[in-house]
Design a protein that fits this description.
This protein is α/β, with parallel strands linked by helices. It is built from 7 helices and 11 strands. The longest helix is centred in the middle third of the chain and has 18 residues.
Amino acid sequence: MADVLILAIETASGCGGVALTRGTTDAGKVLAEYTLQPETTHARQLLGSVGALLAATNIGWSQLDGVAVSQGPGSFTGLRIGLAAAQGIALAADLPLVMVPTLDGLAAQVPPVDLSLCCLLDARKQQVYAALYGHDGARWQRTSSHLVVGPEELLHHIHEPTLLVGPGLNVAPSLFATHSLVRMAPRGMFHPRASAIGLCAARLVMDGTGQESRTPVPLYVRASEAELNMTRMGARCGA
């Protein structure tokens, strides 16, 4: 099981991807990875990229041990596309489907540092998706729930020296930089990657803690605009 072979899909952000990974974050490796640029929608590129990835590595469906997908939070449309594709592939190939929270995958890309960690994604509307992490000597472990907050509110959750990483830094870089406990990673260095999702999924499979599902549910964290509009309409109708 140490050589778990995973096909991973990441579409939670504007720049997604697909990857083939073998093993876990501890001692695994990336066999191949394609990045999906945002000029073309994920739906148009995703399945073609999966086929090209398998052909380039000469790996057949029967050799895979599972399919992993970035669960969210992130782009609602992107998550739906990625989860639908991953579900279809897993069903067709009779493979387990493992969902990995997007921010956990982002945290897995950060080497151990003598700081706490906060991973951020742009949630639009001047908000960020965020989660806090501590290192247990082996890997980053999430120490908070998933948050969707404004930059100022996020800083209220920072109580010790903390490294901030991820695309969410672009929401309010000047504000983050003024906080005495915040250290900022270079803004272009870290974004969600399919390879990290695959390596994390292999660990979950080996530990027996992976959430295998034939009917995957995205981790949205907040209600979609459609749900908010329905709530508003219901409130008006009941008034």
